Write the structure tokens for this entry.
Amino acid sequence: MVENTPMLIDGESVAVAARHAVGRNFDVMALDSIIGPLTKLTGRIRPLHLALRRFYRALPPSIRGERMVFDHLQRVVRERRSQTFMLIGANDGVMADHVYDHARRYGWRGVAVEPVPAFYRALQHHYHGLPVQAMNVAVHHEARSMRLFYIDPVKGAHLPVWARGVGSFDRAQVEQAVASVPGAASFITSIDVPCRTLDEIVAESGLPSVDIIVVDVEGYDHEVVRRIRFDTWKTHTVVFEYKHIPQDILTELRGLLEQHGFVLQQDHEDLLATRALPR
């Protein structure tokens, strides 16, 4: 028996498809002045309102008011357009990603790491034709394989896109991250994933340097940042999510970054560490 259910607009998929389709011509500022008013206008039509909110959340972080990293990257490309990058916890390479639009527009060379097979396949698709190597592994400083907990992308397809993208070696981290979404924890699943060290990933990628490093691994960010070879890789920009990191460890990371000459700033979610571009 087939139930008749109303068809909902998948605003997230529309936004991602639009960003991918227009590629280099996507202007992240073009929608800035219309999304907010449209959201208010559709407030009384709940399905359309929810679809537009999902569309909005799938747009580049800069349009959603998260301009810290975007503005920095704009300054970077004015100084030197050619950059290399590494994404750790890349998800599909588009959703809430700081680098994607710049990478497409300027042809940046990079490596993107994502252990969940479904997101890895989407990652490959989104970066197809660009000098970006996708790796279907996780990062760990010593283990060769780890159990990864994440939201099942098929069974949890109706959940908000940010919830579907949550994954961690620690199940409790996933449960905490999706606690605000009723029933989301029931869609947590797990798989064993192969692991590589940061050194191995950089070596396999063949990158001569890693100018920009973005980390989003739900509570494991500090372990990744601790192992960045800032000077060897000539890294000038590091972005990572700090809200799941204990305060004492965050203080340690801030000290480590400052020792290497980075200037730090943060918004409600991410910490941005920057220093002068190498000559």
Observations:
- The CA atoms of residues 159 and 182 lie 9 Å apart.
- Residues 1-14, 20-33 have pLDDT under 50 and may be disordered.
- The longest strand covers residues 188-196.
